[in-house]
Structure formats: C-alpha cells, structure tokens
Design goal:
It is a single chain. It is built from nine helices and nine strands. The chain is an alpha+beta fold. About 35% of the residues are buried.
Length: about 280
C-alpha cells in the first residue's frame, strides 16, 4: 500500500498495482458534498453574465468532463459560454481581457477565494470541512454561422492574448484516447513537483506525440509512464520543443503556451524525478 508519509515511490520497483493504487489515492472527492456551494457559484455567474449565457447553461468541462480529474488539482471545471457580442455595460469595445478581469473582480467582490490562471479563474469553495477547487473559464461565442461550438478565450500567457477553441472537441478527443490513466499519473507528478504544465498541453502532448504509437491499457501503464519520463527528460529532441497544434483549432499552437525557459524547467524536474524517485 501507499505510505501517506512519503511523497515519492521508487520508480524501479513500481508495478501496475502500485500505479493503480496511486491513481485511486488521488481520485477527486465527491462533488455531492459541495452541491450547495456549486449551485450558489452558478447563480452568481449567471448574475454576472446578465442573461448573456448561451441557453443560460453553464458547461461542465475540463478534467471532470474528460475523466482525468485528480484530487491534487482543480476538481471541477465550468465553462461560461457567452453569446456573440457580449459586452460590459455600455462598453461596445469590450475585449476578452475585459470580460475575464471583470468576472475576476466580480468574484472578489462576492468574497470568493480566487486566483487568475492561464485561461481560467480558480475559485476555491469550502463547505466547512474540506475545499473544492473550481476552474471557471469565460468564453465568447465566435460570430460565425458555421462553427456553433467555437469560442474565443482570453489567454494570460503565450504569444497570443486570445485563443479560439472548441470545448466539446477537447472533451471528446481525450475521452476517446484511451490515455486517461497515463494523463492522471502525469498530472499527479505535476502537482507533487509543482511543475508548470497547462493541462490541455499536457494531455495533447501525451496523446498526439509521446504515446502516439504506444500500447494502450493498464497492462502497459508502467512502460508507458517510464517512456513519458524518458521523453520529457531528454536534453536532445525533447517533444516539448516540437510544434503541437490544438486538435480543435490548428491555428492554436499549444506548444507556444510555454516559453523555452519554462520547458527547460520541466525537463530539469523530469530529470530529477528519474534520478531519484517518483510518486
């Protein structure tokens, strides 16, 4: 069994059961315990949007919808689909950044514990016993008659300050990839080692680059995790420096979400994990 007092496990002694135990250990908590908090948050988001949410429906997105959620990172992801032309008050020139910052400030005024992230705002809810981390991402619908699920998002990092994407495509691609457990294991490492690695980049890098030609299934978890560590710790020909496109919008270059120094920091931490132990 896993020792709660140890942060690491010996990579050379791990087996399939060891990894499945680790995945089970970090399974995200039940959201039923936070149903009242989530309902209140949803009501506040609708209040902020003032009738500008598409069909008045918030969308469960991110790791929970994809099946890759772990207890160490955000447990719940909410996408706020805003209608075409959504503005703040009388400001007809409202930018995506304006919408993002306005929602952030609204949460602050409502006394929420919040933090700005890449494209989302982390909101920490408490039921008096434990906490639930919720990532809230506002997006404005693309003004096009052809792509009904495309949205523009404000981006805090990378070369662009906005990205166009399709949330449904991301969810479907990950769910169909048969890489759920490998993604969970790398997310566990990311959290334990405080590695800066955006989830969408991490997921697509594993699916479309690192594990593209590897076998699927839990019988291959150990080999696949070792392969992931080998690839991400390489000094030469590291997949982090390969071009990686967004499967929902090829003009979005996911590999640009991290700068070269940020990628080098990931490599150094992966090398440290390989040299010592992991959990």
């Amino acid at each position: 069994m896993i020792n709660d007092n140890k942060k690491f496990m010996n990579i050379f002694n791990m087996d399939k059961q060891y990894l499945t135990n680790a995945i089970e250990k970090y399974t995200c908590i039940s959201h039923l315990l936070f149903s009242t908090n989530i309902s209140a948050l949803a009501d506040d988001i609708r209040e902020w949007a003032m009738g500008c949410i598409v069909n008045n429906n918030l969308i469960l997105s991110g790791s929970k919808a994809k099946g890759t959620a772990i207890s160490l990172s955000s447990d719940y992801d909410v996408f706020v689909p805003l209608v075409v032309g959504t503005v703040i008050g009388e400001n007809n020139d409202t930018t995506l950044e304006d919408l993002y910052n306005n929602l952030y400030n609204f949460f602050k005024e409502k006394q929420y514990n919040v933090k700005k992230q890449n494209v989302s705002i982390k909101v920490i809810l408490s039921n008096g016993i434990s906490q639930l981390k919720v990532d809230v991402t506002p997006g404005r619908k693309e003004d096009s008659p052809y792509n009904y699920n495309n949205y523009w998002l404000y981006c805090n990092r990378g070369e662009k300050n906005r990205v166009k994407t399709n949330i449904k495509v991301h969810i479907d691609k990950v769910k169909e990839s048969k890489r759920i457990n490998e993604i969970k294991l790398l997310k566990i490492l990311r959290s334990l080692y405080n590695i800066d690695f955006p989830s969408i980049y991490l997921e697509c890098l594993l699916i479309y680059k690192i594990l593209k030609y590897k076998n699927t299934g839990d019988d291959y978890l150990v080999n696949n995790l070792w392969h992931i560590l080998e690839e991400l710790s390489r000094d030469v020909n590291n997949p982090l420096f390969e071009r990686l496109e967004d499967p929902a919008k090829t003009n979005n270059i996911l590999s640009n979400l991290l700068s070269d120094p940020e990628k080098e920091a990931i490599i150094k931490k992966m090398q440290k994990i390989k040299q010592k132990t992991i959990y």
